[in-house]
Amino acid sequence: MRTSEYTERPIQPARLEREAVARTYHWIAPVHDILARIVEGKARRTAVGMSGLSNGESVLEVAVGTGLNIPLVAQLNPKGRYIGVDITPRMLRRARRRLARTGADPNRYTLGPGDAYNLPFEEAIFDVLINSYMFDMLPQKDFAVVLREFRRVLRPGGRLIMINMTPGPRLYHQIWEQIYRLHPPLLGGCRGIRLGQAARDSGLQLLREAFVSQWTFPSEVLLCRKPGSDTSVPHALRD
Ligand SMILES: C[S@@+](CC[C@H](N)C(=O)[O-])C[C@H]1O[C@@H](n2cnc3c(N)ncnc32)[C@H](O)[C@@H]1O
């Protein structure tokens, strides 16, 4: 199959209502990591590597879930600040337990409630924003709204790293689209999406894209940058 054939394939509609997300993930929380560990680890490592994260940076993770990215971030950025937010209390509780096990400094690494549509932060305060497997459950009409919110909280020159399920070029990648078609909750309401164009349309520079497949599960990793540079201003999160 030619790349253009699958990149032009239409994205399936979102089938998890925004109001139902926290309720759904309350029940998914205890089993979330089973599939995630099997099919997403490679994409996470690719993303954190691509982000160029360096020690001392301020990081916001939106939709932190059970915190599977925390150990990767803490390893590269032990002296930086990290805030993880999510709308599902039960996912956050699991993330808290993982954070404690990671041994990261609790004065630097914190978790709390927060909605991607309306982040509880001032503008331009984070060096890096991480977001994994969240846009793939949102309606396409909301991509721009949330990307604008991400852009708002990043400082000029700040990086945005995003991972999502994506349609793959091979026939076996379509298994996942079929599972979603049959019963979206089996995939936590996630289907394959492509976010590159929406990111560009939201005024972000798309620096790098990677396609990662693990056990047939296709993920897209995007590294974007908020235009501008701001090296002089000591922002709220730096000590
Ligand atoms: C598939 S899980 C992914 C969790 C984590 N990012 C990971 O990669 O393992 C999706 C997560 O997105 C969260 N979520 C969905 N919509 C959200 C929103 N508007 N704001 C914050 N979190 C949201 C859910 O509560 C859930 O924890």
Structural account:
The chain has 239 residues and is α/β, with parallel strands linked by helices. It has a single domain, classed as 3-Layer(aba) Sandwich (Rossmann fold). Helices cover 33% and strands 23% of the residues. The protein contains nine helices and seven strands; from the N terminus they run ααααβαβαββαβααββ. Strands 3-2-1-4-5-7-6 form a seven-stranded mixed sheet. It is globular and about 45 Å long. The protein binds S-adenosylmethionine.
What attributes characterize this protein structure?
239 residues; alpha/beta; Rossmann fold; seven-stranded mixed beta sheet; 7 strands; 33% helix; disordered C terminus; binds S-adenosylmethionine
Outline:
It is built from nine helices and seven strands. It is an alpha/beta fold.
Present the secondary structure layout:
Blueprint: H1 3-7, H2 21-28, H3 32-39, H4 41-51, E1 58-62, H5 70-76, E2 81-86, H6 89-102, E3 109-113, E4 126-132, H7 143-153, E5 154-165, H8 174-182, H9 196-201, E6 205-214, E7 217-225
Parallel strand pairs: 1-2, 1-4, 2-3, 4-5
Antiparallel strand pairs: 5-7, 6-7
Bound molecules: S-adenosylmethionine.
